[in-house]
Amino acid sequence: MFSREQYILVTGASSGIGRACAMLCNQLGASVIAGGRNEERLAASQARCASPAHWHNEVRDLVADLESLPRWVAGLRQKYGRLWGLIHAAGEGRLDSISYFELAEAKSHLELNFLVPMQIAKGFSDRRNFARGGAMLFLSSASAVYPEKGHCLYGAAKAALATAMKTVSQEMAHKGLRVHCLAPGWVRTPMLDMAIEHMGESYETKEKARYPLGFGEPEDVAWMAAFLLSDKARWITGQNFVLGGGCY
Ligand SMILES: NC(=O)c1ccc[n+]([C@@H]2O[C@H](COP(=O)([O-])OP(=O)(O)OC[C@H]3O[C@@H](n4cnc5c(N)ncnc54)[C@H](OP(=O)(O)O)[C@@H]3O)[C@@H](O)[C@H]2O)c1
User: Fold this and answer.
1) pLDDT at 201 over 90
2) Site residues for ligand 1, CB cut-off 6 Å
3) What number is the average pLDDT over the span 174-187?
4) How far is the CA of 138 from the centre of ligand 1 (A)?
5) Mean predicted lDDT score pLDDT of the chain
Protein backbone atom coordinates (compact mmCIF):
# COMPACT_ATOMS: atom_id res chain seq x y z
CA MET A 1 0.00 0.00 0.00
CA PHE A 2 2.95 2.35 0.73
CA SER A 3 6.58 2.64 -0.31
CA ARG A 4 9.61 3.23 1.94
CA GLU A 5 9.89 6.75 0.44
CA GLN A 6 6.55 7.56 2.09
CA TYR A 7 7.28 8.77 5.63
CA ILE A 8 4.37 8.73 8.05
CA LEU A 9 4.62 10.54 11.39
CA VAL A 10 2.59 8.73 14.04
CA THR A 11 2.22 10.41 17.44
CA GLY A 12 1.16 8.28 20.40
CA ALA A 13 3.04 5.38 18.79
CA SER A 14 4.11 4.01 22.18
CA SER A 15 0.65 2.69 23.07
CA GLY A 16 -2.83 1.65 21.97
CA ILE A 17 -4.25 3.02 18.73
CA GLY A 18 -1.13 4.98 17.74
CA ARG A 19 1.07 1.93 18.17
CA ALA A 20 -1.29 -0.24 16.08
CA CYS A 21 -1.32 2.43 13.33
CA ALA A 22 2.47 2.70 13.31
CA MET A 23 2.93 -1.11 13.21
CA LEU A 24 0.43 -1.50 10.38
CA CYS A 25 1.80 1.34 8.23
CA ASN A 26 5.29 -0.10 8.67
CA GLN A 27 4.00 -3.57 7.72
CA LEU A 28 2.26 -2.07 4.65
CA GLY A 29 5.54 -0.63 3.38
CA ALA A 30 5.80 2.91 4.77
CA SER A 31 8.68 4.37 6.74
CA VAL A 32 7.34 5.34 10.16
CA ILE A 33 8.44 8.18 12.43
CA ALA A 34 7.14 7.07 15.80
CA GLY A 35 6.44 9.75 18.43
CA GLY A 36 5.87 9.24 22.13
CA ARG A 37 7.18 10.11 25.59
CA ASN A 38 8.07 6.60 26.70
CA GLU A 39 11.34 5.60 25.06
CA GLU A 40 11.22 1.99 26.27
CA ARG A 41 7.75 1.34 24.88
CA LEU A 42 8.73 2.94 21.55
CA ALA A 43 11.82 0.73 21.36
CA ALA A 44 9.73 -2.36 22.20
CA SER A 45 7.30 -1.53 19.37
CA GLN A 46 10.19 -1.02 16.97
CA ALA A 47 11.64 -4.40 17.92
CA ARG A 48 8.29 -6.08 17.12
CA CYS A 49 7.46 -4.25 13.87
CA ALA A 50 7.79 -5.78 10.39
CA SER A 51 10.76 -3.62 9.35
CA PRO A 52 12.69 -2.04 12.28
CA ALA A 53 15.09 -0.38 9.79
CA HIS A 54 12.14 1.72 8.55
CA TRP A 55 10.96 2.73 12.02
CA HIS A 56 12.45 5.90 13.57
CA ASN A 57 11.73 6.91 17.16
CA GLU A 58 11.30 10.56 18.14
CA VAL A 59 10.89 10.96 21.90
CA ARG A 60 9.05 14.13 22.84
CA ASP A 61 6.52 15.39 25.35
CA LEU A 62 4.17 17.30 23.06
CA VAL A 63 2.92 19.72 25.71
CA ALA A 64 6.41 20.65 26.95
CA ASP A 65 6.79 23.46 24.40
CA LEU A 66 3.63 24.11 22.40
CA GLU A 67 5.12 27.11 20.60
CA SER A 68 7.85 25.03 18.98
CA LEU A 69 5.66 22.23 17.55
CA PRO A 70 5.46 23.62 13.98
CA ARG A 71 9.26 23.94 14.02
CA TRP A 72 9.51 20.37 15.33
CA VAL A 73 7.58 19.12 12.27
CA ALA A 74 9.81 21.21 9.98
CA GLY A 75 12.85 19.65 11.67
CA LEU A 76 11.50 16.16 10.95
CA ARG A 77 11.10 17.09 7.29
CA GLN A 78 14.73 18.29 7.22
CA LYS A 79 15.83 15.01 8.79
CA TYR A 80 13.67 12.55 6.79
CA GLY A 81 12.48 14.48 3.72
CA ARG A 82 8.93 15.57 2.89
CA LEU A 83 6.33 13.78 5.00
CA TRP A 84 3.61 11.76 3.26
CA GLY A 85 1.32 11.35 6.24
CA LEU A 86 0.47 12.18 9.81
CA ILE A 87 -1.53 10.06 12.24
CA HIS A 88 -1.99 12.10 15.39
CA ALA A 89 -3.06 9.65 18.08
CA ALA A 90 -1.39 11.20 21.14
CA GLY A 91 -4.05 12.26 23.59
CA GLU A 92 -5.62 11.53 26.93
CA GLY A 93 -9.03 10.30 27.97
CA ARG A 94 -11.08 11.91 30.67
CA LEU A 95 -14.35 11.10 32.38
CA ASP A 96 -15.99 14.15 33.91
CA SER A 97 -19.17 16.13 34.23
CA ILE A 98 -20.02 19.79 34.69
CA SER A 99 -20.19 19.39 38.48
CA TYR A 100 -16.51 18.31 38.49
CA PHE A 101 -15.37 20.98 36.00
CA GLU A 102 -12.09 22.43 37.20
CA LEU A 103 -10.48 25.26 35.26
CA ALA A 104 -6.77 24.40 35.60
CA GLU A 105 -7.35 20.73 34.64
CA ALA A 106 -9.58 21.81 31.75
CA LYS A 107 -6.84 24.07 30.37
CA SER A 108 -4.25 21.33 30.42
CA HIS A 109 -6.69 18.85 28.85
CA LEU A 110 -7.48 21.31 26.04
CA GLU A 111 -3.77 21.87 25.48
CA LEU A 112 -3.10 18.20 24.81
CA ASN A 113 -6.32 17.25 23.02
CA PHE A 114 -6.87 20.41 20.98
CA LEU A 115 -3.95 22.87 20.90
CA VAL A 116 -1.25 20.23 20.31
CA PRO A 117 -2.96 18.81 17.18
CA MET A 118 -3.59 22.36 15.92
CA GLN A 119 0.09 23.26 16.25
CA ILE A 120 1.17 20.00 14.59
CA ALA A 121 -1.34 20.57 11.77
CA LYS A 122 0.10 24.07 11.31
CA GLY A 123 3.59 22.63 10.89
CA PHE A 124 2.55 19.74 8.68
CA SER A 125 0.40 21.81 6.33
CA ASP A 126 3.31 24.13 5.48
CA ARG A 127 3.87 23.42 1.77
CA ARG A 128 7.58 22.75 2.35
CA ASN A 129 6.86 19.91 4.77
CA PHE A 130 4.38 17.54 3.12
CA ALA A 131 4.43 15.50 -0.06
CA ARG A 132 1.65 16.33 -2.52
CA GLY A 133 -1.11 13.67 -2.40
CA GLY A 134 -0.51 12.86 1.27
CA ALA A 135 -2.84 13.23 4.23
CA MET A 136 -3.16 14.16 7.89
CA LEU A 137 -5.38 12.12 10.19
CA PHE A 138 -6.46 13.03 13.73
CA LEU A 139 -8.04 10.87 16.42
CA SER A 140 -11.29 12.51 17.45
CA SER A 141 -13.91 10.45 19.34
CA ALA A 142 -17.47 9.18 19.06
CA SER A 143 -18.11 11.43 22.10
CA ALA A 144 -17.67 14.38 19.73
CA VAL A 145 -20.51 13.16 17.52
CA TYR A 146 -22.83 11.60 20.12
CA PRO A 147 -22.49 13.66 23.30
CA GLU A 148 -23.11 11.60 26.41
CA LYS A 149 -22.90 11.88 30.20
CA GLY A 150 -19.37 11.93 31.60
CA HIS A 151 -17.60 13.16 28.48
CA CYS A 152 -18.23 16.86 28.93
CA LEU A 153 -14.77 18.31 28.36
CA TYR A 154 -13.28 15.38 26.43
CA GLY A 155 -16.16 15.31 23.93
CA ALA A 156 -16.02 19.08 23.49
CA ALA A 157 -12.25 19.05 22.84
CA LYS A 158 -12.63 16.26 20.27
CA ALA A 159 -15.57 18.04 18.61
CA ALA A 160 -13.50 21.23 18.37
CA LEU A 161 -10.70 19.22 16.75
CA ALA A 162 -13.03 17.58 14.21
CA THR A 163 -14.62 20.91 13.28
CA ALA A 164 -11.26 22.63 12.91
CA MET A 165 -9.97 19.84 10.68
CA LYS A 166 -12.99 20.10 8.36
CA THR A 167 -12.00 23.74 7.83
CA VAL A 168 -8.34 22.80 7.31
CA SER A 169 -9.42 20.19 4.72
CA GLN A 170 -11.11 22.96 2.72
CA GLU A 171 -8.03 25.15 2.93
CA MET A 172 -5.59 22.39 1.94
CA ALA A 173 -7.46 20.36 -0.72
CA HIS A 174 -6.20 22.38 -3.69
CA LYS A 175 -2.66 22.28 -2.29
CA GLY A 176 -2.66 18.47 -2.42
CA LEU A 177 -3.13 17.57 1.24
CA ARG A 178 -6.14 15.56 2.47
CA VAL A 179 -7.36 15.84 6.07
CA HIS A 180 -9.29 13.21 8.06
CA CYS A 181 -10.63 12.53 11.52
CA LEU A 182 -11.59 9.20 13.00
CA ALA A 183 -14.15 9.10 15.79
CA PRO A 184 -13.91 5.71 17.52
CA GLY A 185 -16.16 4.48 20.29
CA TRP A 186 -14.52 2.39 23.03
CA VAL A 187 -11.36 0.61 21.84
CA ARG A 188 -9.39 -1.81 24.04
CA THR A 189 -6.34 0.23 25.04
CA PRO A 190 -4.88 1.46 28.34
CA MET A 191 -7.33 4.39 28.04
CA LEU A 192 -10.30 2.03 28.36
CA ASP A 193 -8.57 0.13 31.19
CA MET A 194 -8.19 3.41 33.08
CA ALA A 195 -11.85 4.27 32.61
CA ILE A 196 -12.90 0.85 33.95
CA GLU A 197 -10.52 1.18 36.88
CA HIS A 198 -11.96 4.61 37.65
CA MET A 199 -15.63 3.69 37.26
CA GLY A 200 -15.66 0.04 38.37
CA GLU A 201 -16.44 -3.29 36.67
CA SER A 202 -20.13 -2.44 36.21
CA TYR A 203 -19.08 0.37 33.84
CA GLU A 204 -17.51 -2.16 31.45
CA THR A 205 -20.66 -4.33 31.46
CA LYS A 206 -22.96 -1.35 30.94
CA GLU A 207 -20.83 0.14 28.14
CA LYS A 208 -20.29 -3.19 26.37
CA ALA A 209 -24.05 -3.70 26.15
CA ARG A 210 -24.24 -0.61 23.90
CA TYR A 211 -21.90 -2.13 21.27
CA PRO A 212 -23.55 -4.75 19.01
CA LEU A 213 -20.09 -5.74 17.67
CA GLY A 214 -18.35 -5.37 21.04
CA PHE A 215 -15.52 -2.96 21.88
CA GLY A 216 -13.02 -2.25 19.11
CA GLU A 217 -9.41 -3.41 18.96
CA PRO A 218 -6.62 -0.93 18.07
CA GLU A 219 -6.11 -2.75 14.74
CA ASP A 220 -9.75 -2.01 13.78
CA VAL A 221 -8.88 1.69 13.82
CA ALA A 222 -5.45 1.18 12.23
CA TRP A 223 -6.82 -0.42 9.05
CA MET A 224 -9.13 2.53 8.45
CA ALA A 225 -6.29 4.98 9.15
CA ALA A 226 -3.95 3.20 6.72
CA PHE A 227 -6.57 3.24 3.98
CA LEU A 228 -7.28 6.95 4.45
CA LEU A 229 -3.58 7.80 4.34
CA SER A 230 -3.01 5.78 1.19
CA ASP A 231 -3.60 7.12 -2.31
CA LYS A 232 -6.50 4.65 -2.60
CA ALA A 233 -8.43 7.29 -0.62
CA ARG A 234 -7.38 10.12 -2.95
CA TRP A 235 -11.01 11.35 -3.35
CA ILE A 236 -11.76 11.49 0.38
CA THR A 237 -11.12 14.49 2.60
CA GLY A 238 -12.78 16.49 5.37
CA GLN A 239 -14.72 13.66 7.04
CA ASN A 240 -14.95 12.56 10.67
CA PHE A 241 -15.62 8.81 10.37
CA VAL A 242 -17.35 7.14 13.31
CA LEU A 243 -16.01 3.65 14.10
CA GLY A 244 -18.34 2.30 16.71
CA GLY A 245 -19.10 -1.39 16.34
CA GLY A 246 -22.72 -0.51 15.60
CA CYS A 247 -23.07 1.76 18.67
CA TYR A 248 -24.78 5.12 18.14
N1 LIG B 1 -9.27 3.99 23.38
C2 LIG B 1 -10.42 4.49 23.07
O3 LIG B 1 -11.47 3.92 23.40
C4 LIG B 1 -10.52 5.76 22.25
C5 LIG B 1 -11.77 6.11 21.75
C6 LIG B 1 -11.90 7.28 21.00
C7 LIG B 1 -10.79 8.07 20.75
N8 LIG B 1 -9.59 7.72 21.27
C9 LIG B 1 -8.46 8.60 21.01
O10 LIG B 1 -7.44 7.86 20.37
C11 LIG B 1 -6.15 8.40 20.71
C12 LIG B 1 -5.27 7.26 21.22
O13 LIG B 1 -5.88 6.71 22.37
P14 LIG B 1 -5.42 5.31 23.02
O15 LIG B 1 -6.63 4.70 23.56
O16 LIG B 1 -4.54 4.60 22.10
O17 LIG B 1 -4.60 5.88 24.28
P18 LIG B 1 -3.34 5.30 25.08
O19 LIG B 1 -3.16 3.84 24.85
O20 LIG B 1 -3.52 5.80 26.47
O21 LIG B 1 -2.12 6.05 24.39
C22 LIG B 1 -1.98 7.43 24.48
C23 LIG B 1 -0.75 7.84 23.71
O24 LIG B 1 -0.65 9.25 23.76
C25 LIG B 1 0.70 9.58 24.11
N26 LIG B 1 0.73 10.83 24.85
C27 LIG B 1 -0.07 11.21 25.88
N28 LIG B 1 0.30 12.42 26.33
C29 LIG B 1 1.36 12.80 25.57
C30 LIG B 1 2.20 13.93 25.57
N31 LIG B 1 2.05 14.94 26.44
N32 LIG B 1 3.20 14.00 24.66
C33 LIG B 1 3.41 12.99 23.78
N34 LIG B 1 2.64 11.88 23.74
C35 LIG B 1 1.64 11.79 24.64
C36 LIG B 1 1.18 8.44 24.98
O37 LIG B 1 2.58 8.42 24.97
P38 LIG B 1 3.47 7.69 26.13
O39 LIG B 1 2.87 6.32 26.29
O40 LIG B 1 4.83 7.60 25.50
O41 LIG B 1 3.39 8.52 27.33
C42 LIG B 1 0.54 7.24 24.27
O43 LIG B 1 1.36 6.82 23.21
C44 LIG B 1 -6.41 9.48 21.76
O45 LIG B 1 -6.40 10.74 21.12
C46 LIG B 1 -7.81 9.17 22.26
O47 LIG B 1 -8.48 10.31 22.72
C48 LIG B 1 -9.42 6.58 22.01
Assistant:
1) no
2) 12, 14-18, 36-38, 41, 61-63, 89-93, 112, 139, 141, 184, 186-187, 189-192
3) 98
4) 11
5) 97
* Ligand 1: nearest atom to the Cα of 90: 24
- Sorted by where each begins, the domain ranges of the chain are 7-243
Q: What is the pLDDT of residues 42-96, one digit of tens each?
A: 999 999 999 999 999 999 999 999 999 999 999 999 999 999 999 999 999 988 8
Note the pLDDT of residue 96. 86
CA of 174 to the centre of ligand 1 (A): 31
Query: Does the domain at residues 7-243 carry the CATH identifier 3.40.50.1000?
Result: no
Given the CA of residue 60, which atom of ligand 1 is nearest to it? 33
Three-state secondary structure readout of the chain: CCCCCCEEEEECCCCHHHHHHHHHHHHCCCEEEEEECCHHHHHHHHHHCCCHHHEEEEECCCCCCHHHHHHHHHHHHHHHCCEEEEEECCCCCCCECHHHCCHHHHHHHHHHHHHHHHHHHHHHCCCCCEEEEEEEEEECCHHHHCCCCCEHHHHHHHHHHHHHHHHHHHHHHHHCCEEEEEEECCECCHHHHHHHHHHCHHHHHHHHCCCCCCCECHHHHHHHHHHHHCHHHCCCCCCEEEECCCCC
Local confidence band at 129 (pLDDT 50, 70, 90 cut-offs): very high
